[in-house]
């Protein structure tokens, strides 16, 4: 049999199989649509979806429009559905339904995942995947990181870093006064240095900080891309970057253990953590018991990355919106400046104390209103571990990715919710208590953010220092304050401003 005959036979065979192959593919496509419609039932959402990809392309191309559409079609029922890369998803707009998800994070209901493809990106042992007693034990060990003493240590570090970056911003703006300065990447760098210094302090050397920044940028980009875990794709680069970041943080943990074992005073978050942990490890060793879970360097390195992920982009979002909202509400800015001046002066060369932060009641209210009005992490993804009865007429199918909308809840219940109004959090109105269920920016239930006081302190300090030290004017263009995802929400133009020094001189701040 010659080559021509073999080729002819193969071609003939393929042609004869083509109708069967076509029919099989068509059957799979029909089955996919049928399964989607069975899960969808009467819920609002698209009637037909693109094979496998679903509406992933529209989500990646314009996340703001995608989620705004879901919010709109969810107005009546409180939720809506869609299909993304082979996964059925459910969007929740109604606050009470969101609480139903937050309060049922357990093995037979929902698992918090932080990202639709979080397990691939963060690894299997991330803190957000924990349940029950295991999760409670870890949070108990984390608690010493956020005591008043620890927070006071962090506020000193935060102010020194904020001041250094604000001076740099003014210098950059003054060097080219006719061109607005875009702050998104600059604010991200400020927060990254703050996180590095507060979390692991002296254990991250300059060269390691530079690598850390590069890896975190890779991670950031990967969170917004399609989850293709192959060489050359951003998602793969992000996953490998997470591994390197966690390894670096594990090395910092080992250095902290060594230093604290010599009875040195804590200077950063990992030191406070290790101070209590070493006491626990010493006690179990004396009792002849094995070391408890969640105490190895590798585990703690992973949990430190969880802190970084939770703090970094959310805080960047809040700083940018604070600047934009203060610019568009000069009466609020004037009140902030007046209040801060009663407690702190740049000429004093003193750090703002923890007590002074607490006394800045109006500035605290402004920070809370910034977070309510523009909740940084608008969605909190969970996976349904079992079929779950959401309403009398709808059951969430097992495996569904569920997206409670924190942003939508922020515009429910509150008086005139579409208005930026810090007075709602004042002593007279106390809407933070009246509508507590609607303020979900820090989550709810067992996985509520353990570092929310740290995050609020950071925002209050930034607002106080930025408004006191700097005169600023927003470079306003059409749509500049439209919401975009990066991956937390930011102004569309990256918050472009003109800056100049306001104070007579900058303060000389130090830890001495």
From TrEMBL:
Q: Sorted alphabetically, which PROSITE patterns does this protein's record hold?
A: CYTOCHROME_P450
Whether Transmembrane counts among this entry's keywords is yes
Does this entry carry the keyword S-adenosyl-L-methionine?
A: no
* Xref: Pfam families: p450
What membrane topology does the UniProt entry give? Single-pass membrane protein
Care to name a GO molecular-function term for this sequence? Answer: heme binding
Q: Name one GO biological process term.
A: sterol metabolic process
Q: Where does heme bind?
A: 449
- At the top of the EC hierarchy, this enzyme's class is oxidoreductase
Q: Name one GO cellular component term.
A: membrane
Primary site of residence: membrane
Q: Which cofactor does it need?
A: heme
Q: Where in the cell is it found?
A: Membrane
Q: Which reaction does it catalyse?
A: 5-dehydroepisterol + NADPH + O2 + H(+) = ergosta-5,7,22,24(28)-tetraen-3beta-ol + NADP(+) + 2 H2O
The family annotation for this protein states: Belongs to the cytochrome P450 family.
Q: What is this protein called?
A: sterol 22-desaturase
Organism per entry: Turnera subulata
């Amino acid at each position: 049999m010659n080559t021509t005959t073999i080729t002819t036979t193969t071609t003939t065979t393929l042609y004869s199989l083509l109708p069967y192959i076509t029919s099989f593919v068509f059957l799979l496509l029909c089955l996919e649509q049928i399964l989607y419609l069975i899960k969808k039932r009467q819920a609002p959402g698209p009637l037909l979806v693109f094979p496998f990809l679903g509406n992933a392309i529209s989500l990646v191309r314009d996340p703001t429009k995608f989620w705004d559409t879901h919010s709109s079609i969810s107005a009546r029922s409180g939720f809506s559905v869609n299909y993304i890369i082979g996964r059925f998803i459910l969007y929740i707009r109604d606050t009470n339904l969101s609480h139903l998800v937050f309060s049922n994070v357990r093995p037979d209901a929902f698992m918090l995942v932080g990202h639709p493809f979080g397990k691939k990106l963060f690894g299997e042992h991330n803190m957000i995947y924990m349940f029950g007693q295991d999760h409670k034990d870890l949070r108990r060990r984390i608690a010493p990181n956020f005591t008043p003493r620890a927070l006071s240590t962090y506020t000193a570090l935060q102010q020194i870093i904020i001041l250094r970056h604000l001076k740099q911003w003014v210098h950059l703006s003054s060097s080219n006064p006719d061109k607005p300065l875009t702050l998104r990447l600059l604010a991200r760098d400020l927060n990254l240095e703050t996180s590095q210094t507060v979390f692991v302090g002296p254990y991250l050397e300059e060269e390691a900080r530079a690598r850390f920044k590069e890896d975190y940028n890779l991670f950031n980009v990967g969170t917004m891309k399609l989850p293709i875990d192959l060489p050359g794709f951003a998602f793969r680069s992000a996953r490998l970057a997470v591994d390197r970041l966690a390894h670096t943080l594990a090395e910092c943990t080992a250095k902290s253990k060594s230093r604290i074992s010599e009875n040195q005073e804590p200077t950063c978050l990992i030191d406070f953590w290790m101070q209590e942990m070493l006491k626990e490890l010493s006690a179990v060793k004396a009792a002849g018991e094995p070391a408890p879970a969640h105490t190895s360097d590798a585990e703690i390195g992973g949990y430190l990355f969880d802190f970084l992920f939770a703090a970094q982009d959310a805080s960047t979002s809040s700083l940018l919106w604070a600047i934009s909202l203060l610019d568009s509400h000069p009466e609020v800015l004037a009140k902030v400046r007046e209040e801060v001046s009663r407690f702190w002066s740049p000429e004093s060369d003193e750090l703002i104390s923890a007590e002074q932060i607490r006394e800045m009641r109006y500035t605290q209210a402004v920070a809370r209103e910034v977070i309510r009005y523009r909740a940084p992490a608008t969605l909190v993804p969970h996976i349904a571990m079992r079929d779950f009865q959401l309403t009398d007429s709808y059951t969430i199918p097992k495996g569904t990715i569920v997206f409670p909308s924190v942003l939508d809840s922020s515009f429910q219940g509150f008086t005139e919710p579409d208005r930026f109004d810090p007075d709602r959090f004042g002593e007279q109105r106390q809407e933070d208590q009246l509508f507590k269920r609607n303020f979900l920016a820090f989550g709810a239930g067992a996985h509520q953010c353990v570092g929310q006081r740290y995050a609020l302190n950071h925002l209050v300090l930034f607002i106080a220092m930025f408004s006191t030290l700097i005169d600023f004017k927003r470079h306003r263009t059409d749509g500049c304050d439209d919401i975009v995802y990066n991956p937390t929400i930011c102004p569309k133009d990256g918050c472009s401003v003109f800056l100049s020094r306001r104070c007579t001189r900058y303060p000389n701040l130090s830890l001495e």
